[in-house]
Amino acid sequence: MKTKSFLSSRNIGLDLLRAGLIIEGVLLHASRSLPGENSWIYNSQRDPSTLFTALLSLIHTFRMEVFFFLSGMFSALIILRKGRAFFHDNRRKRVLLPLLSAYIIIPPLMYCLEKQMSTSVITLKGVLESYATLHHLWFLVSLSIMSLLIPNRFYQWCARYFAKMPLPFLIALLIVLGNLFFVLKFLTKGQGDFINLIPVTARFLVYYTAGYALYIHRGNISCYSNSIVMNGGLIAALAMAIWLGFFMVAEFHIEGAMKYLPTLAGSVFSVLLSYWLVFKFEKIQIKENRMLTTIIDSALVIYLLHYPVVIAFSWLLDTWLPAQFSIIYVLIDFVIGIAVSVVCYFLIKQSHYASFIFGVKPKMKKFT
Known about the structure:
mainly alpha, 0% strand, globular
């Protein structure tokens, strides 16, 4: 990799990676209705596919970690190129405002949907109390805190120390810090979404800071990319081992400390994969076109709006499809969630006001 050309212009490969990570969240939410350890807003009674759910568990170990790593990297890029004032204004318009807009809509909508599924009475008190739940919007809250509240000098300070470490030592440090905050998450379990957000934000701050440091010291990239820990075969073998671990836990109902081994291995995998994916996707040569631009630009709106759609249809589809079609059940729900959200995206783009509050570029009018 030539350091001088690293992100010297818009990189469609990394933009697609970021959009893909966001859209994977739609698939994961569509699958959460399958029976499992964690309770969900709607729980289907159909038999899950262990192979499929193990794959989704694997994806869950790295999806948000890589997303925050990319976010930190792009944050450093914007600050260095256009300054902190531009960056803060951009984050207020592209992150904070869409968060507030979605927060006004999603919690009460989810409350009404839950009451409809359970045939319970909707009350004004219940609607107001629904705002204590963040649902899938937590990641925008964390991203807003990292972008707008944590001083830039903190990231600069971390970047200086990260740059002094060989990549294997740096990865080991990130793994330890990430797992430390992952453990703290269990101490706040059951304390409500806003309390739980503290260790969650701290954990993903580790990845955000690592991505920020990578761009600040991009002169190290040529050395990093050739490191022994950036071996594609090693990463693929680790991914296979983690997938097999999740499969064994689900298939044989393993309990106790042993059931957390795949998750622990996933914490190692997520750090390695964050660097590896950046190095690989940055090299991908893709010509920008309308379809790719639409996928990239619509990803955030799709993620914000898909949530009530996939949960509503997980409830409706459960009575329409035979119980043995668990994978088809999830995939149909996923496609519906994407399709409805894409339609909403195009409707939003028709309005300058709606485009503004959801952080997307409005449709340009053609002048004749």
